[in-house]
Amino acid sequence: MGGIRLSPLRLFLMVLSVALGSTLIGGDDSTESTWFLRIKSELVDPNGALDNWSRKSHICSWYGLTCSHDQADVVGLNLSGSGLSGFISPEFWHLVSLGTLDLSSNFLTGSIPSELGKLQNLRTLLLYSNSLSGKIPEEIGLLKKLQVLRIGDNMLSGEITPSIGNLTELRVLGLAYCQFDGGMPLSIGNLKFLVSVDLQKNNLNGLLPEEIHGCANLEYFAASNNRLEGAIPASLGNVKSLKIVNLANNSFSGSIPVELGRLSNLKYLNLLGNELSGEIPSELNQLVQLEKLDLSMNKIVGTISLFNSQLKNLQTLVLSDNDLAGSVPNNFCLNNSNLQQLFIARNNLSGKFPTELLKCTSLQQLDLSDNNFEGDLPSSLQELQNLTDLLLNNNSFSGNLPPEIGNISKLENLYLFDNFIMGRIPPEIGKLQKLRSIYLYDNQMSGLMPRELTNCTSLTTIDFFGNHLTGNIPETIGELKNLILLQLRQNELSGPIPPSLGYCQSLQILALADNKLTGTLPPTFRFLSELYTVTLYNNSFEGPLPASLFLLKSLKIINFSHNRFSGSISPRLGSNLLTVVDLTNNSFSGPIPANLAMSKNLTRIRFAQNHLNGRIPHEFGELTELNFIDLSFNNFTGEVAPELACCEKLQHLLLNNNQLSGRIPSWLGDLEELGELDFSSNNFRGNIPSEFGRCTNLLKLSLQNNNLSGKIPEEIGNLTSLNVLDLQRNNLSGSIPTAIQECKKLFELRLSENLLTGTIPPEIGKLTELQVILDLSNNFLSGQITSSLGNLMKLEILNLSSNHLQGQVPSSLAKLTSLHSLNLSKNDLQGQLPSTCSEFPLSSFAGNNKLCGPPLLSCLYSKRPEKKKISNAAAAFIIVAIVSTSALICFILIYIMMRMWCNLTRLSISTSDGKGSDQERIREEETWAVYDHEEKKRTGK
């Protein structure tokens, strides 16, 4: 065929057209630019990425577009990361030449238009990292040439459409980080060219389909963080090309399939966080390419049956959080091991420290924590020269910390807490120049803190809590410029805080509580600008607080309680971050500074047991985050500041043992979160506000030892959470309200020393949780003791003394088997006591004259019939008769005694030598003659 001949004019016009850059591709009838401009109209482009999309320029020069070699068609659109928002236009379906569509990493919303299914030439579709919603359109399955589909990291939901199984050319499927649910489509097995599947972080459920083995070329398979369940299919072992399998954090159960041992190309296997059981299959030792294996957080039992001697490429082995037992196998390691991380924490492994691991000289991280290992730590630990992290905490290791540990020169983190390690901290620890964290807490270590420790200038964390360390904190502590946490609580340290501590300017947490430290706070405290927690309680610090303390802008928690600090509390500005100030049990005096209220985030103020005085600052009402105020045992006066009503989050308000006066404010009833209210031992007067009934979260209400009067309000029954009610030693009157029966969680009820009248309401018997005490003593209660008290089976102390109770002691009290103190004294009770009362002393019943039975007198004795009364005359006759009879008996007795005396005298004379005997006998006879004469005259004989 001959060539087409063009006239010179026609040829010139064609060249001019190309030179000027036509806005249409493929001739004047092309409309692609029109469709692209329509697509642009539905997008928001704050960064101006599409500014050159205009008919003024050639379409192939537009941002993000790729044309074919002959510039006849647009074959690619890449607008990834352009900051676009808006919708994906359905007009895309007109761009039938597109092979690549990439709108990833933007802010697009709306759904994926089903019209995209008409792009028959599309090979790559990338819509990931947007805010798309809705379902995957079924029409996606029409894209027969599609090889890469990545639409994850969106808000897509619903089931994964089975039509995906029609994408037989697909190589990459990325659906991770969405909200897909339902099961994995069985049709996924049709995708024989599939290389990568990422389904992580969805809500997929059901079984992992056996059809997965149809993906014969699959190398990467990740379905972690879903709700897949059932057994891991054995057919997964037939996908020989697999290199990475991640099924972590699902609900797979059953045993680990032995077929996984066939995956000879596998480098990464992660099954953590499932419910797998059984033993570790020894077939996993055949995975010679394996580099990382994670079986942690399952229910695997048996022993460790994996051997680094076979898994020569293994770098990371994680078996933590299972039920493995026994010890580490003797042949676990080879000298040429590549193992770098070994984590077998939180199992039931036992025995001595596994010295077999010392052959794994490549180890960088070793975690044996939370097992049952015991015995001494071997000095040969120093052979692990590459070790950076050694975690042996929560075992039963004992003996001393070997000095050779100082030779592990790369060690950064040493965790030995919660063991039985004794002895001193070896000075050789100071050789660990890279050491960042050392945790030795909850052991039995003693001796001094070695000065050499401060050579470890990389240290950020020191935690020696709960040991027996003595002596001073090293003076050179200030050398640790990077120190963030210094925890020395519960030791026996003494001496002052070294001034150099102020040079640890990175320090955030300082915990020196529960020691024997003394002295004042050093002025260098002002340099601790990062400090946010300082706890010094239970020491013997003294002197005033440094004025600079409250200038530290990062302070959140101050606890200096139980020391000997004195002087005034005088914050100048106050930290805006301050949440807790506890100065309990010191010797602070003077008023509370009002500018403490400048710390607007305060949640706890505890100044109890000091010598503070003045009024409670009304500025505290500005502290709307307060939930705990304890100003008890001070000398505060005046009324409760009404501004405290603004502290709506208050849960604990303790103002007891002060000299506060006035009425108890009714606005307390508006503090709905109030759980503890203690106004006891003050000078409050007036009624108990009925508004208390609105404090339905109240657990403790203590108003004892005031001058309160009036009745106990019925609204007290609304306090259904109340555990303690103490109203004793007031002037309350009226009866005990029956509504108290609604306080069913009461375990302590004290109403003694008031002016209460009426009977003990039987409804009290419904308070079956009463345990500590029921004290109604020293009132004017009358009537009988209600038998319902026998329902208080947990009660330990019952005091009803000093009332006007009558009648019998109910037998139901015999059921109070927990009772160890009973006081019914000073009442008008009568009758027989229940048998169980015999266990209590007499004083428990004193002042009830008509009571009987053990431990009192027998009721049989007390019930003998009374003798009839006789007249006065009869009584006088009886008295005369008794007196006469008594006199007669006396004379007779005297007579008998005299005769006996005479006989004895005669006997004495007859045995004597006769001198003076006649005169004595005559005198005796005259005496008896007179007696006989008087006797005859009296008797008339």
Extract low-pLDDT stretches: 1-30, 864-870, 904-941
- Beta-strand proportion: 15-25%
Number of helices: 5
Biggest pleated sheet: 33 strands, mixed
CA distance, first residue to last residue: 200 Å
The number of E-state strands comes to 66
Derived from helix and strand composition plus strand pairing, the structural class reads mainly beta
Q: Averaging pLDDT over every residue, what do you get?
A: 89
Radius of gyration: 48 Å
Shape: elongated
Helix content: under 10%
Pfam families: LRR_1, LRR_14, LRR_8, LRRNT_2
InterPro entries: DNA_repair-toleration (IPR053211), Leu-rich_rpt (IPR001611), Leu-rich_rpt_typical-subtyp (IPR003591), LRR_dom_sf (IPR032675), LRR_N_plant-typ (IPR013210), LRR_R13L4/SHOC2-like (IPR055414)
Subcellular location: Membrane
GO molecular function: ATP binding; protein serine/threonine kinase activity
